[in-house]
Structure formats: structure tokens, C-alpha cells
UniProtKB/TrEMBL annotation:
Enzyme Commission number: 1.6.2.2
InterPro entries: CBR-like, Cbr1-like_FAD-bd_dom, FAD-bd_FR_type, FNR_nucleotide-bd, OxRdtase_FAD/NAD-bd, Riboflavin_synthase-like_b-brl
Superkingdom in the source lineage: Eukaryota
Gene Ontology molecular-function annotations: cytochrome-b5 reductase activity, acting on NADH
Start and end residues of each FAD-binding FR-type domain: 50-159
GO CC terms: membrane
Names of the cofactor(s): FAD
Lineage, top ranks: Eukaryota, Viridiplantae, Chlorophyta, core chlorophytes, Chlorophyceae
Keywords assigned: FAD, Flavoprotein, Membrane, Oxidoreductase, Transmembrane, Transmembrane helix
Top-tier EC class: oxidoreductase
Protein name (Swiss-Prot/TrEMBL): cytochrome-b5 reductase
Binding site for FAD: R108, P109, Y110, V125, K127, K133, M134, S135, T176
Compartment(s) of residence: Membrane
């Protein structure tokens, strides 16, 4: 589906969120999982930001026509992965594509959807795209397979009550860092930060974690609001309660906190959406200049964070 990049009309496309990392080299097998598990200290984090460690796929659940939830077992049942809010992980795998004479090590970032303090497991939600080497590989994994992890990589060091309101604009799998932050805030009754989410997708069937998001909104009506946008609703939109078509500046104004001290907007989605909403990150993966609709609406670079 072609991206329509326009500051006043933003196309909601599901796509893998975050920066893309790629390393080319001859594939090398990860250390045996059993060896790592035998040495694991249940009191310490399962993962390390400076070392690749293999985790075994313990469960796999299909969420939509092209998305899955993958649950990886940590070495010990009471062990935590070592995540913070907000942070992501890197995964790597030796993959051989058409025309490759040897496997290449592909590295990608993912934000887990399990709570940072979850014990014994780490969950990822992925969309398997036909032309996405890593996502296709993850979608084809079977229970018992292993995958190498490294992390966490801290993105935005969230602190309780540092902000009054957080607005979130997510597209597709860009929901994963938003879910990590929102759930962390809402589970803490001493955190008074309010959260509003504008979540864009191609269709209703593409909306990831919708039941989970709706339950959050129902449980915290004064602290969390969500508004969905799809490119085209089914049944002519007769049963659809969200918006259809493009995400416009009017929608952003209606569902995000206004620019100001104590308010922050998080953005995560495919490159086309990032460019239209906030501008993409710089080539070195720093925040880069603020542009797009949020700049036009008066937000400052300090008031926007790009995942």
C-alpha cells in the first residue's frame, strides 16, 4: 500500500516500529542454550546490553492474519529480563535470502509487550511481512527454537509524575512501546500522569492488542483514553466507533494534550507516518529535527519523542 505523506493527512499503515539495524557477516551460531541456562543467576537479569544471549520460544499465538505473539522462556522461572521503561531489545538471526551466497546476520529492535518485571518469560508481538527478513523468520519460528537477544536499550527514561499528560500516536506495531509505557503508568496508583492514545491501522483486523487496550481504557477511564483510526472500516463503517480515512491535524488536536510544559507526545510507526507526523529520526538514530503536523500544531522539539 503506497504511503501518502502529507502533513495535513496522515496515512495509518501497520509496519514495524522503530529504527532498523542491519549487520552483514557470516552467520555464527549462538552459544548453546543449555550452557547459558546452567550459568544463569536467578537473582540477576536474564539479558545483558553488552552480550548476546539465546532464549527458547515457549509459546506462539496468532493474533491477526499476519501477526503473532511469541513468548520466550527465561532461564529461570523467577528471573526477570532486566527491562526498564521505556526500553527495547535487539534480536539477531543468521538468515539467507534470495541471491545470498551465505547467511547474513540480521539485527532488529523490538519492544516486548510483557511487563518489564514479568518473571520467567519475555513476550514479543510481531507482524510477519513477506519482504521482512526478520519478521518472516520470527513468524516461522516453532516452539523449541531459540533466538539471540541483547538489551535493554533505554529509549525514554520514564519517571513517575514527571509529566502531566502523555499523548501517543502509534501506527501498526508502533503500539508496542506505547503499551509498555501506558501499562506501567496505569498499574501505579501513585502515578497521576494521564495518557491518551491515537492508534492508526489499515483495517479493524490489523489492530494489535485491541482487547488489552480497551480493558485498560475501561479500568482507568479518568487516566487513559484511546481513539482508533482505520483506513477503511468494514460494513461501510456502520458498526465502527472510531475514525476512518486519514489522521488529520484536527484529530491530533482532539485526542492529544496541547503543547505546553508538562505535556509530551510520543510517536512510533512506519517511516511514512513518522515523516508526516513528526519527521523521522536522524540517520544516526538521534531524534532529528521536529517537522510534520506536530510542528505545525505548535509542539516544540522538547515536547515530542520519536521511538
Amino acid at each position: 500500500m503506497a504511503l501518502r505523506q502529507c502533513a495535513s493527512r496522515l496515512l495509518p499503515l501497520g509496519a514495524a516500529a522503530g529504527a532498523v539495524y542491519f549487520a552483514s557477516q557470516q552467520a555464527q551460531l549462538a552459544p548453546p542454550f543449555a550452557s547459558f541456562a546452567a550459568q544463569a543467576d536467578a537473582a540477576g537479569p536474564a539479558l545483558d546490553p553488552n552480550e548476546w544471549r539465546p532464549l527458547r520460544l515457549a509459546g506462539k499465538k496468532q493474533l491477526t492474519h499476519n501477526s503473532f505473539e511469541l513468548s520466550f522462556a527465561l532461564p529461570e522461572p523467577q528471573q526477570e529480563a532486566g527491562l526498564t521503561v521505556a526500553s527495547c531489545l535487539l534480536v539477531k538471526a543468521p538468515l539467507q535470502g534470495p541471491g545470498d551466497d551465505k547467511p547474513k546476520v540480521i539485527i532488529r529492535p523490538y519492544t516486548p509487550t510483557s511487563p518489564p518485571d514479568a518473571k520467567g518469560h519475555l513476550d514479543l508481538v510481531i507482524k510477519a511481512y513477506p519482504d521482512g527478513k526478520m519478521s518472516k523468520h520470527l513468524g516461522s519460528m516453532k516452539v523449541g527454537d531459540t533466538l539471540d537477544f541483547k538489551g535493554p536499550l533505554v529509549k525514554f527514561p520514564y519517571k513517575r509524575n514527571d509529566l502531566k499528560e502523555i499523548g501517543m500516536v502509534a501506527g501498526g506495531t508502533g503500539i508496542t512501546p506505547m503499551l509498555q509505557v501506558a501499562e506501567w503508568i496505569l498499574r501505579d496508583p501513585t502515578d497521576k500522569t494521564k495518557v491518551s492514545l491515537l492508534f492508526a491501522n489499515v483495517s479493524e483486523g490489523d489492530i494489535l492488542c485491541k482487547k488489552r487496550i480497551d480493558e485498560l481504557a475501561a479500568a482507568h477511564p479518568d487516566r487513559f483514553k484511546v481513539h482508533y483510526v482505520v483506513d477503511k472500516a468494514s460494513w461501510g463503517g456502520l458498526l465502527w466507533k472510531g475514525s476512518t480515512g486519514y489522521v488529520t491535524p484536527d484529530l491530533l488536536k482532539a485526542h492529544l494534550p496541547p503543547p505546553g510544559v508538562g505535556n509530551m507526545v510520543f510517536v512510533c510507526g512506519p517511516p511514512g507516518m513518522m515523516n508526516a507526523v513528526s519527521g523521522d529520526k536522524a540517520p544516526d538514530k538521534s531524534q532529528g529535527p521536529l517537522s510534520g503536523a506536530l510542528r505545525d500544531l505548535g509542539y516544540s522539539p522538547e515536547g515530542v519523542y520519536k521511538f
